[in-house]
Design a protein that fits this description.
about 60% helix, about 130 residues, disordered C terminus, mainly alpha
């Protein structure tokens, strides 16, 4: 996506690193570039607002779910390997035996909000 206008920081770069910005995982100088871009580019600002709203919605709905101990240990182990510069084994950390066996009732029963309702709620959050 691009608004078609020239910017110091290209729209594609901003969108490629949007989650790093949202998660505050980038240096301050990079954050400043993104903030300046959002001030002059309404399509990217809108995308940022939508992604921010979805993130808040997920946190509110799923933020208290417990992570299985085995999965947490494997993920932390991989992070340690990556930080140490070692090769990471090609193994799926999301294997079914590691995932939480329970699915929230509103998701498993199909009585939860419809995708359109979630999207509408995310859009409404973005406007606030």
């Amino acid at each position: 996506m691009s608004c078609g206008d020239p910017h110091e920081t290209d729209c594609s770069e901003v969108l490629d690193h949007l989650y790093e910005f949202l998660d505050k995982e980038m240096p301050d100088g990079e954050c400043t570039k993104f903030e300046e871009h959002f001030e002059e580019c309404s399509p990217c600002l809108e995308k940022y607002g939508l992604e921010q709203a979805v993130k808040k919605l997920v946190k509110r709905c799923c933020g208290s779910d417990d992570v299985p101990t085995d999965l947490r240990s494997k993920v932390l182990g991989r992070i340690d390997l990556i930080r140490a510069g070692q090769a990471v084994p090609e193994q799926d950390v999301t294997s079914p035996d590691l995932l939480a066996p329970e699915v929230p009732a509103d998701l498993s029963s199909g009585t939860g909000p419809a995708p359109d309702a979630v999207s509408a709620a995310a859009t409404e959050q973005a406007k606030q």
